[in-house]
Amino acid sequence: MFGLHYNLERNAIGLVLAIVVVAGIGGFIEIAPLFTIDETVEQDADMRVYTPLEVAGRNIYIREGCYACHSQMIRTLRDDVDRYGPYSLAVESQYDHPMLWGSKRTGPDLARVGDKYSDAWNTAHLNNPRDLVPESKMPAYRWLLRNELKTEDLGLHLAALRKVGVPYTDEMIANASIDAYAQANPDTNDAPALAERYGDATHIRMFDGDGARLTEMDALVAYLQVLGKMTDAAYQPDLPEAQ
Amino acid sequence: MALSERDKVSGHMTTGHEWNGIKELNTPVPRVVYIFLISATIFSVTWTILMPSWPGINDYFRGLLGADQQAEVRQSVAEGVAERSSWTDAIVDEDFTTIRADPSLMQTVRETGKMLFAENCAACHGAEGLGNPGFPNIIQAPTMWGDDPATIMETIRVGINSAHDETRYGQMLAFGRDQMLPLSDVDRVVTYVQTLSDPAIATADNAEDIGEGATIFADNCAACHGETGTGMQETGAPNLTDQYWIYGGDRSSIRHTVYYGRQGLMPTWEGRLTPAYIKLLALYVADLRTAAK
Question: Which top-level group of life is the source organism from (chain A) (predicted)?
């Protein structure tokens, strides 16, 4: 058997083919679990999709590199479950493209941080964490309150997400920019239509405490406040896997 | 390519390459490497048979050992709950007075409460519970909804202005922005409110303003804050006569509060924390309040 390898090394074409075969085995083993992904992701018909404002917040979360210090996955370990709540299920990241599970926790896990703290706390804390937690080493993201949110391309973001399987409707995509404004301004006439499109559980309020401007802070806080709130699947331990 | 030959000194074959008379040895790979490689391969294949692994057409191979991380963590969490039941049962079943009279139970409350407080409450109220701008001091300041552990427990359970159906509801109206008071009256009542906690504010110059401010206060503010401004636990309106301020006690902060109103939010902890933990936190806070007096 090892004599075969000795001879193979002396045959350039044969060696290249053998490398392709061996590397192919490795690739196959990485890809193969995806063949049965429909069977391993739990089914939840009530799974919500991110609103345009939450998508914008998620993009800011990625832009600012929050994932470098915060994971979004509660692992199947007793310590994790005791501290953060029920372990994360695959279905909870079903519409996350890309997923933001992370593997590094300089700060705490954020998978269930939605509704844990108030909007005012999130806004003040993102603006300067040390105003509230003196020993915090999290950077201050002061520009989030200053920067107006860019909304005109949100429809395109939704359309792109639909391409990879998030069930956005044409209506959602067409109204993305209006919906983003409406979600942070509860008094506008567009708010009821937003709630109708995305469900009554949608948070519609002034996330950064200022209704006059739609800032990046509005978007990021709106996103943080739905983490772990898109489905209650994790609170039903014996949810059937699809079959 | 020169022919390979056996090296006389080491006894190994050479590769047949030669540089100025120096020939490259073709030393065989040590046997231990082969042994390791073969045993690692056997181990991995065996492991895929024991553990969930190979994908099939409609399902995947579950492994002979039937390992399931979700079932394992559910069991280990249940074990933790069972271990803690020795004291969580007592926390849930006994009344507040009995627990506070039990030194060993209070020892548990202080140790566990410290961790729970740090993980859940300290973000807003501070590590010592002494408050932050916008978030009240819950250890030293008079409580807004009531001082006894049962009331504190209810506040933790339902929250204030929270998403809970039974939430406590408290709102400071925007007297200025919503034009309930003209701007001049806002300024007068702010001056009066300042005198409640700091009588030194009152001078001969502003005596008239303060007098009118008192009337405005009686007409607009006393319904929630009480006639003397000491707060009312039924409405959750804070005491204005002490040195503790949620949003700041300087003139511009008070004016901001009167003009724009306030509606602080305390989240509900029901569902996130178990009833035993909520009660334990109420005991912990009540204990710290007693110690601070």
Answer: Bacteria
